[in-house]
Amino acid sequence: MKQIETVCPCCETTLVVDAMTGKVLRHAKPSEVDETGKMQLDPDRWESATERTSSRGRDATDKFEEALGEEKSKESRLDDLFDKAKKKVDERGKGEGPLG
User: How far apart are CA 9 and CA 99, in angstroms?
Assistant: First the structure.
């Protein structure tokens, strides 16, 4: 991914733009840029990003466990439906045809 770093002529904000998509990847106000022109990392932003990332893993695990439980219960529900249908067929009698 090619990135282009530029400075807005109006507000002097430093922008990092993806050259392929044209989307702004990062931006920094003039107060967030050091004397060399590089963006300074904000520790609070870093920690909040770390929290969001770690919570995604927990959320994914929770969703997976929930889906797994649903699949297990689905199997037992389908087994029950099959048993009921089988019992119904057996009650009809073996001599009769499928349509009655």
Answer: 81
